């Protein structure tokens, strides 16, 4: 009788506790980040990684990730050059548009930096890029910067 009572008590406990509704919070925001900042190790003392390329490379493509729900229309994301981490000269060492587009229904966009072959030999220059986002999409605090080192 004790075994039957124990089994019946256990059955009631399972039945009445297994259907408890859980209200887990759901994040509904949206952020952008550099894929390279997520998968590469940051420089010592910095929060961003460095990608080294030769000045003969031509084009550097950086993947920008959308964290959040896909958008119904294209999203134009702004980025800037951070002067404190940049020694490269715009128009001389590189060109970039200042925006990247994440297509509608996609989680990724491509930021393109055109590296100029200056013909110089020796030394290097750095270009530190930072995602700014737009009115609807913010920028990830930890993964919004990438530095490109252009070697000559």
From TrEMBL:
Signal sequence coordinates: 1-21
SUPFAM superfamilies given in the database record: CalX-like (SSF141072)
Keywords: Signal
Name listed for the protein in its UniProt record: DUF4843 domain-containing protein
Organism this protein belongs to: Algoriphagus lacus
Species lineage: Bacteria, Pseudomonadati, Bacteroidota, Cytophagia, Cytophagales
